[in-house]
Amino acid sequence: MKLTTVTAAALVATLAAPVMAQDTKVIGVSIPAATHGWAGGMNFHAQEAVDRLEEVYPELDFVLATASDPAKQVDDIEDMLATRNISALVVLPFESEPLTSPVQAVADSGAWVTVVDRGLAIAGIEDLYVAGDNPGFGTVSGEYMVSAMPDGGDIVVFRGIPTTIDNERVAGFEAAIDGSGINVLAMEHGNWNRDDSFAVMQDFLSKYDNIDAVWASDDDMAIGVLAAIEESGRDDIQFVLGGAGMKEMIARTRDGDEMIPANVTYPPSMIATAIEMTAVGLTSTAPVSGTFVIGSVLITQENAAEFYYPDSPF
Amino acid sequence: MKLTTVTAAALVATLAAPVMAQDTKVIGVSIPAATHGWAGGMNFHAQEAVDRLEEVYPELDFVLATASDPAKQVDDIEDMLATRNISALVVLPFESEPLTSPVQAVADSGAWVTVVDRGLAIAGIEDLYVAGDNPGFGTVSGEYMVSAMPDGGDIVVFRGIPTTIDNERVAGFEAAIDGSGINVLAMEHGNWNRDDSFAVMQDFLSKYDNIDAVWASDDDMAIGVLAAIEESGRDDIQFVLGGAGMKEMIARTRDGDEMIPANVTYPPSMIATAIEMTAVGLTSTAPVSGTFVIGSVLITQENAAEFYYPDSPF
């Protein structure tokens, strides 16, 4: 047995040699752990991208670290820099402030830096910035509402946690419905939270005798809204438009649920795009420095299957 | 001989079969022919990306067509759609107007559309838009001038053909030098042309007894400027900053030529980025719809070798 093990190890060493000779490059990927739905999807897609790229490019090696808090993420990145000789870092920062200095240190070492979704506290550290399109998310949502309600109607709108992201989304939405027959009865912050949105929707239902549709603007908020509608027994609400492409909601759209006729992407798989583009940067001469804003796409029954990932938790 | 040919053909068919079974996808690439320097580089990088990706992805097939005028490009695209069953089109439009309708037809067929550098006449046709960063090109250029002239100085500025692109570049430059000790003696349009810029620089040299540096803002214009300076025998001009990364100019920076200490990218290799990202879209689940603005990067003697492509004509 012992002899066999030694032989196997020797064999592995022999097989590994040509790959090492090819100048293996290591890409570090540092992301928040799967603490909630979107982050769960993000973790799934990061692992999937790493698995795919390790197949495609034998000369690339990956270190994927997930962190439950900013301090752990700082440690992860410092470790990648100190012990893994990374050629590139792909990071979705837990928070901007604490991560800025360790990511700066990676950039100073000469390694490539790709930042995803949330910016750092100092501009210009990263080589590549990959982010979602918040104004576009609102625009696509608003355009869908207009097309789904050709004769106009009364809607209520759910906002997220008060942030620039939320402001941009709402501004895009308002511009898109401007001049249509859609009348916004009320807007309240549901804080991207099911329970908050349940309570807000209960309040809306008691205030307004007729609501034609709801822009919930997020699938977690949509779930709270749907629960409140169901509890009320009301049948005036024709549909609820969520967003971000949660698995269960995509399935309902795919299966023709009339209450959930559409969705708008703000994809957690943007982490995969960031990893893929970083790999392109390390394996080709194509320039990948710059800013990639991933468009928000409308999902309807027609294309929902393309956006349903059976193995993803989100 | 005949028998051998038949056997070889049969062998090819046998070898090709598993690939076909893998559901081969065809990416069409339609670009202007290499009629001038930047387009020459663009053609080189398109071919290089196609060659690389055919190696990496046996399941992808490419059709690369170059056109000397818009009518030929329209034909190329219609042909790709009619006879090549393309899954995706990467197009750098010769002109916006005539290309809009044929590219729309490709999108309507359900194929993916990536547009590079110049937009179409109607917004929203493309899935992915890849472009250079004109304001950033000006900003990086201005920041370099400020760092290279810590005590300030008198400069002259060359503008391109009057266009939005030119306005954005100049606005970025002016903002970057604002509040520094750099004084712009004059700005004139050299129209991205060597001869025009030679004449403008002759005029500047006769008007101003002392010029510390020149923002030529383009390598073709820089060549005209350098010729005028050389002819004048003047030695007050310390350096000329061009742009776009022409091969000969990158070499001079790399080799330590003090008159050409830097360059700013507006890379013709952006076509390679567009082709690579389209390939990522067809081979992975990573979303690649959206807008990728490729950053303009400062090239100095330190990193010039990375931007020198010995086999490219540009």
Give the low-confidence spans of chain A.
1-21
Number of helices of chain A: 10
Distance between the termini of chain A: 44 Å
Number of strands of chain A: 12
Arithmetic mean pLDDT of chain A: 92
Q: Shape of chain A from CA axes?
A: elongated
- Which class of secondary structure composition applies to the elements of chain A? alpha/beta
Please render the helix and strand layout as text.
2 copies of one chain form a homodimer.
Chain A: H1 2-21, E1 25-32, H2 37-56, E2 60-67, H3 70-83, E3 88-91, H4 96-108, E4 112-116, E5 128-132, H5 134-148, E6 153-159, H6 164-177, E7 182-189, H7 194-207, E8 213-215, H8 219-232, E9 239-241, H9 247-254, E10 262-264, H10 270-283, E11 290-294, E12 298-300
Parallel strand pairs in A: 1-2, 1-3, 3-4, 4-5, 5-11, 6-7, 6-8, 8-9
Antiparallel strand pairs in A: 10-12
Helix pairs in contact in A: 2-10, 3-4, 5-6, 7-8
Relevant terms:
disordered N terminus; 314 residues; homodimer; alpha/beta; 10 helices; six-stranded parallel sheet; four-stranded parallel sheet
In short:
Chain A has 314 residues and is of the alpha/beta class. Helices cover 46% and strands 20% of the residues of chain A. In chain A, the strands form 3 sheets. Chain A has a 6-stranded parallel beta sheet with strand order 2-1-3-4-5-11, sandwiched between helices. A 4-stranded parallel beta sheet of chain A has the order 7-6-8-9, with helices on both faces.
Care to describe what's here?
Two copies of one chain form a homodimer. By secondary structure, chain A is of the alpha/beta class. Helix content of chain A is 46%, strand content 20%. In chain A, strand 3 (88-91), helix 4 (96-108) and strand 4 (112-116) form a beta-alpha-beta unit. In chain A, helix 2 (37-56) packs parallel to helix 10 (270-283), helix 3 (70-83) runs parallel beside helix 4 and helix 7 packs across helix 8 (219-232). The longest helix of chain A has 20 residues, at 2-21. Chain A is elongated and about 65 Å long. Mean pLDDT of chain A is 92; it is low at 1-21. The interface between A and B is medium-sized, with 33 and 33 residues. Strand 11 of chain A pairs antiparallel with strand 11 (290-294) of chain B.
